[in-house]
């Protein structure tokens, strides 16, 4: 994906809007990242969404995991202000405990009684 529209260098950092951690803009694999590897929070900025209204700068909370056909995991973020949803690739050093907790949450909290499966 061409990144010619930005001027971010490999050594740039940003501060996590949630926990204050100083985060390298590029992950260990050299891919650009937009969320904190510790708490997985992100920030709603224009270049995180293609063609979206966005750019509100508010905190984006990680709410779910999506798995692509390729097997790659994506984090689904929701903006605290405009409620817009975005998906961002998981990095190698992202908090694996938080990722797993989000991945199993739908199984741990099904919106219907699990006893229903007993009748199948
Ligand atoms: Zn953080
Ligand atoms: Zn927003």
Automatic annotation (TrEMBL):
Q: Where is the RNHCP domain?
A: 12-100
The source's superkingdom equals: Bacteria
Q: What is this protein called?
A: RNHCP domain-containing protein
Species assigned in the record? Rhodococcus erythropolis (strain PR4 / NBRC 100887)
């Amino acid at each position: 994906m061409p990144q010619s529209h930005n001027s971010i260098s490999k050594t740039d950092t940003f501060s996590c809007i949630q926990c204050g951690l100083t985060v390298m803009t590029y992950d260990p694999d050299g891919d650009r990242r937009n969320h904190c590897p510790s708490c997985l929070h992100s920030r709603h900025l224009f270049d995180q969404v293609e063609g979206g209204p966005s750019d509100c700068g508010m905190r984006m909370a990680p709410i779910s995991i999506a798995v692509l056909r390729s097997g790659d995991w994506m984090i689904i973020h929701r903006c605290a202000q405009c409620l817009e949803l975005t998906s961002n690739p998981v990095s190698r050093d992202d908090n694996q405990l938080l990722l797993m907790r989000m991945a199993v949450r739908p199984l741990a909290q099904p919106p219907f009684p699990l006893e229903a499966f007993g009748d199948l």
